[in-house]
Write a structure and sequence with these properties.
- By secondary structure, the protein is mostly helical.
- Helices cover 61% and strands 5% of the residues.
- Strands 1, 2, 3, 4 and 5 form a five-stranded mixed beta sheet that branches.
């Protein structure tokens, strides 16, 4: 066989470099068959060969081992092929090559923790038997000795790990030994630090101060990685010293530990010692007494801190002090699930699983992201916290033991537990092998093909001779990630369903108390009620119940992500019961993840949508296709209304259909808005089209009712005003209108006026009066005509000539301002055109006298002082408050009054269009215009969100955290970012108010 073919068969990636190193003088005379047999064992034969040549150059005696039979040389080839970094270490320290002079064991035994501690302490000249060991050497010599001894321990472990018959089976032992090795290194570093502290303080005082090092995270759980930050908390015992002096010495000891472990020296640092999980984090003192820790946890600690303490374990220093700390915090850990804010803490913990992952890394993450290690750890830890209060068998620190305990206790089904445990071990094994290669802290799947090929080999046991392809490795990884997500949902919710449905199953079934505890931890405020809904959905042997049992694990998870999962689950139950066995509904939930997830999120985040879906459950079908969520335009709605009116001559039947169409379209718009398919401007326009179609339908029905008693004597026009006229309405908006009429030929003005009054009164009543049976969940359209001439004291409807006479003789500037938003809404087209011709000179004058400008400013100031509700915070009122909608709209309208006569670009009923035109004309600075538009959009969005969330209109930025969270999510903020919305609105509105005052009042 040619050399190139042998290299390929052995798994080499770089054939040219492989040939060059094989011809090195260091390998002359070695048996090629035995050499290739050894290289074939290496995950990366390229790396193994290069390290071997360099090692023989430093230590020629290694030729003997390289030339030995594979049974003897296996440890060397496996380590050199799996870890370039350990090869570099042995090149620096060839005296430790003796680590390879062992026989590989398929079932290795973990190292004795006490022996590791003694070895590391002896490396710095400390006595392992001493109560508080002190090193005989200090400074860089001590650091080098400590780090070298640690890395020698790492080589010993790597030999066992890489030669174990089943790497997955041995994995927990690897994590445990890595943690024990890290603890031994910290113990030795503390001994060095005591010796160094005695150079600055009295040796007697240093000896009097006790320090316990508490391992947190993976080190505390004895499931450490090959390279990872080691999270710690320091507990100090003052002994006979004053607390302040003891704390100073304790701080010096803790700082000395980090220095010995990771400071710059000739032997590279090991890893970071991270004390940020201590009370108050980086802001808190580095060391505290046990009493100080107890006080902090009793009074100020947040829920996440107790979850972090789940892994706490004394790893170095004063053992008795460490045990006292463990005993003190244990009750706090297991009662934390009952603390206020626990659910919010859990939800925040879930968000941290995928938070801050750079986009370029998202698909390569083994630890973070969907289906990663954090998913497994989160699931297991939450179940421990929920059920561990009552069941002490669940109080385990490491993940694999906790999974086994949860399965033994019946909290996880046996098959699910086995699959979850296997997935976790596989992901950890990938992480270990990737980190081992260069001893760098990374959780990313490599992208280079040679690295993937080496990794694919490295995760196999020593009895496998195959070299899997990179594609097979990536496929296995993707399958594992999918399995983790599916198992997460099954493990959380399947036992709940088994309990609720009273199924006879081999899977886990929880007691009612345990099931309710789990639901409460997931955010359900009424666990008993939630269990009743689950029972109703899953009970029985029908196909529907079976499918609900299949679907509910993931649906409950999605509902729990909402602000009000209880309301969401209730609404889901009602929708499901209303649709019964409808084939398309169950099929959509089963086959369309996007539709099902969208439904759950809407039901648990929007009372308005939930209420509308409960009475229009057939609308759920829209969720499967985005095209079905495109709002119907006015013409399409009017065509449908016309067709229905033609088939239903009875006014009440016709109005029922008109109002049902409006209710349906509001729901469609809200769902499209929820799905992110519409921006705020398109929402306002779509809602305005829906109102317009309903008003025109009501007008035609009213005319039909009146004409039934005689001929029509007049034509009527409904003119939209205010935000309705600007097509800028929200879900809770009334319709500001004015009514205009014109007598038909042959009828007197008096006759026409009397009939017009009856028509407009009928229009309003048709849109608002209760129907039998009632239209459930309808948002009734209230018609508000207060902007008509003379306001509430004026006639409800006027003729066009009367409008002309009024505006010629008595019109005030505020009425011209109101006409800026006037837009024909429903009625006679010719009358509409004549009315616009009438009002254009009034609302777009050639100039505005200074006294009128002063009057506008005076009225605005009066509105601010008199119309703001008593007790309302001006900073939080969206309409009339500081920098709110009113400020932006009044400023824009003043500019329109002053300049639209000369600049047709300003002749629009839209606030944002007028604002953009004013900026384009240079009437205000572009930055000011953008700020005002931002404030207006955000206030409008919050206003609509108030209705969407609660089903009730409100002009106030919520102060309740829960309400604010719901509104923030609707406004596009990530979960848990309610405070960011609050800060953004208060900041933007404050700046908008400053612009308003400068441009409107001139100061």
């Amino acid at each position: 066989m040619s050399l190139a073919r042998r290299l390929i068969a052995a798994g080499f990636s770089d054939l040219e470099k492989g040939e060059r190193f094989l011809s090195a003088r260091e390998l002359e005379g070695l048996d090629q068959d035995r050499l290739f047999a050894g290289l074939h064992l290496a995950a990366s034969p390229d790396t193994a060969l290069q390290s071997l040549v360099r090692l023989i150059e430093k230590h020629p005696q290694l030729r003997e081992l390289a030339d030995a039979e594979p049974e003897a040389s296996e440890p060397m080839y496996r380590v050199l092929g799996a870890s370039e970094a350990l090869g570099e270490f042995l090149i620096r320290h060839p005296e430790h090559l003796e680590a390879f002079e062992v026989r590989a064991s398929p079932e290795p035994l973990p190292a004795n923790p006490g022996l590791l501690r003694a070895t590391l302490l002896q490396s710095v000249g400390a006595d392992p038997r001493a109560a508080r060991p002190v090193a005989a050497v200090t400074g860089v010599d001590a650091y080098a000795a400590l780090r070298t001894a640690y890395r020698r321990g790492l080589v010993d472990l790597a030999v066992k790990d890489l030669c174990a018959a089943d790497p997955l089976d041995f994995l927990p032992s690897v994590g445990g030994e890595l943690a024990d090795l890290a603890a031994a290194a910290i113990e030795a570093a503390l001994a060095v630090s005591r010796a160094e502290a005695a150079e600055q303080h009295s040796a007697a005082d240093v000896a009097d101060v006790g320090l316990a090092v508490i391992g947190m995270g993976k080190c505390g759980a004895r499931e450490l990685n090959y390279i990872s930050d080691v999270d710690v908390i320091y507990v100090v015992d003052a002994g006979s010293l004053e607390d302040a002096h003891a704390n100073t010495i304790g701080t010096a000891l803790a700082s000395g530990i980090s220095r010995a472990i990771s400071s710059v020296a000739r032997e590279p640092g090991l890893w970071e010692v991270d004390a940020n999980l201590r009370p108050e984090g980086k802001s808190g003192p580095l060391v505290r007494t046990l009493a100080s820790h107890e006080t902090y946890y009793a009074r100020w600690a947040e829920s996440w801190e107790f979850q972090a303490l789940l892994k706490a374990r004394a790893i170095a220093g004063d053992a008795a002090l460490g045990r006292a700390y463990e005993d003190a915090v244990a009750p706090l850990i297991w009662s934390s699930a009952g603390r206020e804010g626990f659910v919010e803490s859990v939800q925040a913990m879930r968000r941290r699983v995928t938070e801050h992952i750079p986009a370029a890394e998202e698909q390569r993450q083994i630890k973070l992201g969907r289906g990663g290690l954090r998913d497994v750890e989160f699931t297991v830890q939450l179940l421990q916290l929920v059920h561990g209060k009552a069941d002490e068998t669940l109080r385990r620190r490491d993940t694999t033991s906790a999974i086994a305990a949860l399965s033994a206790g019946g909290y996880i089904g046996r098959s699910d537990a086995a699959a979850f445990d296997n997935a976790y071990r596989y992901l950890r094994l990938l992480e270990h092998r990737i980190q081992l290669f260069q001893l760098r802290r990374t959780h990313l799947m490599p992208v280079a093909e040679p690295a993937l090929r080496s990794l694919a080999k490295a995760v196999l046991g020593p009895f496998s001779n195959e070299r899997p392809s990179p594609d097979s490795l990536l496929s296995a990884w993707q399958r594992t990630k999918r399995s983790v997500r599916e198992l997460h949902e099954r493990i959380f919710y399947r036992p709940l369903l088994n309990t609720a449905a009273k199924l006879s199953s081999e899977d886990a079934r929880l007691t009612p108390e345990a099931a309710q505890g789990r639901l409460a931890a997931l955010g359900y405020r009424d666990p008993q009620g939630a269990m009743r809904h689950i029972e109703a959905l899953t009970a029985g042997v029908s196909r529907r119940a079976a499918l609900q049992r299949q679907l509910l694990p993931i649906l409950l998870d999605w509902l729990a992500e909402g602000v009000d999962p209880d309301a969401g689950l209730l609404a889901f139950r009602r929708v499901s019961e209303a649709l019964g066995t409808t084939h398309w509904y169950l099929g959509m939930l089963r086959d369309s993840n996007a539709a099902a997830e969208r439904l759950c999120h809407m039901l648990s985040n929007s009372r308005l949508i939930a209420d509308l879906l409960e009475v229009s459950p057939e609308s759920v079908a829209w969720l499967g296709q985005d095209k079905d969520l495109v709002p119907l335009g006015f013409e399409a709605q009017w065509q449908e209304i016309t067709a229905k009116m033609a088939r239903h001559a009875d006014p009440e039947s016709a109005m029922r259909l008109i109002r049902l169409i409006r209710r349906r379209e509001i729901l469609r718009i809200a769902i499209a808005d929820s799905a992110g398919l519409l921006d705020q401007e398109r929402v306002g326009g779509a809602l305005a089209d829906t109102d317009r179609a309903a008003v025109l339908g009501a007008l035609r029905v009213a005319e039909g009712i009146v004409s039934a008693g005689g001929p029509l004597k007049t034509t009527v026009l409904v003119v939209a005003m205010g935000r309705q006229g600007g097509r800028e309405i929200g879900y809770g908006s009334d319709a500001d209108v004015m009514y205009v009429h014109r007598a038909l030929p042959g009828f007197s003005e008096a006759e026409a006026q009397e009939q017009a009054a009856r028509i407009v009164a009928k229009v309003s009543s048709l849109l608002t009066q209760p129907l039998k049976p009632a239209i459930m969940a309808e948002r009734v359209l209230q018609m508000d005509a207060d902007l008509r001439p003379e306001g509430k004291n004026g006639a409800m409807v006027r003729s066009l000539d009367s409008f002309a006479e009024y505006y010629r003789r008595w019109s005030l500037i505020w009425e011209a301002q109101a006409l800026l938003r006037a837009r024909p809404m429903a009625g006679d087209d010719a009358l509409a055109a004549d009315f616009i011709r009438l009002i254009d000179p009034i609302r777009y004058p050639e100039s505005v006298p200074e006294q009128d400008v002063r009057e506008i400013r005076r009225v605005k100031a009066r509105v601010e002082s008199e119309r703001l509700p008593r007790g309302a915070d001006p900073a939080r009122h969206l309409k009339l408050g500081r920098g709110g909608l009113s400020d932006v709209e009044w400023l824009v309208q003043l500019l329109q009054l002053q300049h639209a006569g000369k600049h047709p670009e300003l002749r629009t009923t839209s606030t944002l269009e007028a604002l953009a035109a004013a900026a384009e004309l240079g009437l205000l600075d572009g930055a000011d215009a953008r700020l005002l538009a931002e404030a207006w959009r955000l206030a409008s969005r919050i206003r609509s969100a108030n209705v969407i969330w609660s089903g009730k209109a409100s002009d106030v930025l919520p102060s309740s955290r829960r309400d604010l969270e719901a509104v923030a999510r609707w406004c596009g903020y990530e979960p848990g970012r309610a405070a960011a919305l609050e800060e953004d609105y208060l900041r933007v509105s404050r700046r908008a108010r400053a612009v308003f005052e400068r441009l409107f009042y001139g100061h």
